Amino acid sequence: MKRVAFLFLLFISFGLLPTAAQAQQPTLTFNHAAICVKDLKASTDFYKLVLALPEIPNPFNDGRHTWLSIGPQLQMHIIQGTCTLTPEKNVHLCFSTASVPEFAKRLDRQKVAYSNLLGQQSQVTLRADGVRQLYLQDPDGYWIEINDAK
Predict the structure, then answer these.
(1) What is the CATH number of the domain that holds 62?
(2) Which of 19, 86, 116, 137 could form a disulfide with 123, with the two C-beta atoms 3.0–4.6 Å apart?
(3) How far is CA 117 from the centre of its chain?
(4) DSSP-derived 3-state class of residue 90
(5) Do 141 and 93 fall into the same domain?
(6) Domain extent at residue 70
């Protein structure tokens, strides 16, 4: 019995077993992001054509919602409505890609404007940690970062 108690305390000490307080805490996982847009078709086209996000079924079928897949078990909901937005780069969505320069070439071919963090057009930022990034805006002015973070 002492051995069982010792192992139990050892497992809790190293975080291998949840404490009573931890067991009561709900586990959260990210499910979706939702954005408000003025023109559902323009925004849906942008996210599907420029960012190549696949559309997924949505339960509303009301002409005001588009749901997109943004990763395994992750969604983005585009909702048409009366929106108030003050675009700011510090409030943005971020997607990672294997090659920012290749993604920039794609934007160039589609004539989609982008900039670096400082706002220099058609430029890419190289962060101190070696990650490349660029920024673009969707039809409603939302900022989107594309980077090559691993």
Answers:
(1) 3.10.180.10
(2) 116
(3) 17
(4) coil
(5) yes
(6) 30-84
Amino acid letter, 122: S
Residue 103 and residue 135 in one domain: yes
**Do 92 and 122 lie in a common domain?**
yes
The DSSP call for residue 53 is P
Q: Contact at 8 Å (CB) between 68 and 117?
A: no
Residues 35 and 77 sit within 8 Å (Cβ to Cβ)? yes
Does one domain contain both 107 and 124?
yes
Residue 8, pLDDT > 60, answer: no
The answer to whether the pTM exceeds 0.85 is no
CA angle at 64 for the pair 61 and 68, rounded to the nearest 5°:
75
Q: Locate tokens 């320069």: which residue? A: 101
Cβ atoms < 10 Å from Cβ of 50: 16
Query: Which residue has tokens 């019995």?
Result: 1
